[in-house]
Model the fold of this input.
Amino acid sequence: MPDRVLITTDDLEQAVRINAALEQGRFDTAMVSSLDDVRQAVRGRQPPPDAIILTGGLHESTAQRLLAAAHEHAVSTLGLVEATDDDPARIGTELGLTAWLVKPTDPLEVTATVRRLIERRRLQQRTGILGESAAIQEVLVKIEQMAPVTSTVLIEGESGTGKELVARGIHDLSPRRGKAFIAVNCAALPETLLESELFGHEKGAFTGAAERRLGRFELANGGTILLDEIGEMPASTQVKLLRVLEDRSFFRVGGTQPIQVDVRVTAATNKSVKEAVALGRFRDDLYYRLNVLSVYLPPLRERRSDIPLLVRTFVAEFAKTHARTFRGITPEAMQILVAADWPGNVRQLKNLIESMVVLAPEGEIRASDIPRDIRERTRTMPVRIAEVQGVPREITGQELEFIFRTLVEMKVQLEELRHRIEERAPERVEVIEVGGSREQGAGSRRLEPATVDPLDSTPEPDGPVVYKAGMTMSDVERAAIDAALRETRGNRRKAAEVLGIGERTLYRKLKEYAIS
Ligand SMILES: Nc1ncnc2c1ncn2[C@@H]1O[C@H](COP(=O)(O)OP(=O)(O)OP(=O)(O)O)[C@@H](O)[C@H]1O
Ligand SMILES: [Mg+2]
Done:
């Protein structure tokens, strides 16, 4: 299918010439005159256009509304800036254009630019790196340039800004993509363990080394390694790494034969390695070896224009994962998220969206669903509670992620518990003991059916679910679900409880067995 491009007709003469050139270049084009036309084309059709060219009127509010909509739907925009505008780059950045050209433009140049923008969009889809800000676009250009070569790359940026995503992107676009990508966290292990993790060890190299073990460098042979938190690497390991970078060879711990590998090295850090060099904690020769190519990921608070797109994408993604019907987010809530500080950057935003998609009661994120600390834009202090051999150290992003997930799961369970208690609370007052007819065996966790009316002595309509010859396991399951729904008068939450399964599992099974 040809790529679709919309051209606004604010500058009709340019629009017509560009349209002709794009058609020659086998694009599927449409000229649009009003914001409504564009809106319909962006939102109405599936899928949205691949790019929009704004031929003029960039400073008008309609163009700005159009750009905001394009941003949210991840559609690339190319703006044609007037020659009388004195600083096109500043205008482009301020308006949030993906790219801009100064008028009068050569239609062939416009075609080439549009083609490049669309290719970059594909790159974003492949790498999962979202963002229309100039900073992210710059990162994508670098990934494209760095992927084909084997030079070492140093990726810097605060925790959760997407450093691992960039390293994976470089690997996935490189000729090494069929081989391993291995990430090692240099801060998570004490010195001796880190060396054996990276370079492997021979049998008997140290107490407990019962077998020869291959290190990460050997396992990544032919592929790419990511040395995460490189700034925390102990001095002795730095020496060994320098040797690997110089001649791609090393010794296993306790080994005497040099091992030769072909590994592309990428390294990431959320602290300034340059500073560590100045303080004498990081070898300068190693720093220069690592920093042949470099990528810097600015914190999310410095590229707030990317937040709406990230939010919408994550909401859709998690609604799908958790099988939630979700309408989206209110404008007020979005404004709060755009203004927040995000010390944990994209990871923090993503985790928060996941928890809100799971927990927001109205199927929509509202301002009141956003935790107070985010609403108040308070910055959280770095957590320093983990210790390695008695030395305090900062908790890593992955550890924070793990802690966060555990907390979200606990929160979800608590919510479910609260719902159950709320639902059952009045019954507790009304339940009247009627003897053993419905008693469960000792230790059974099956919950009592709703209210028990002492006057209601009619037996259960169909009796207990029993296996009959010819029934499959699915038939038995289906019959059990039918019975539970009858028993609970169609209350799905209670039916799930009675069956001892989660409500979501019940919904899945209802769908599977087409029970309405
Ligand atoms: N630009 C982005 N678009 C989409 N998702 C992103 C982006 N940046 C980060 N993420 C997501 O945020 C999370 C954190 O990203 P990643 O692990 O790459 O960060 P990091 O910089 O390596 O963090 P740390 O320093 O804590 O290791 C991941 O789930 C990643 O997919
Ligand atoms: Mg990381």
Observations:
- The radius of gyration is 30 Å.
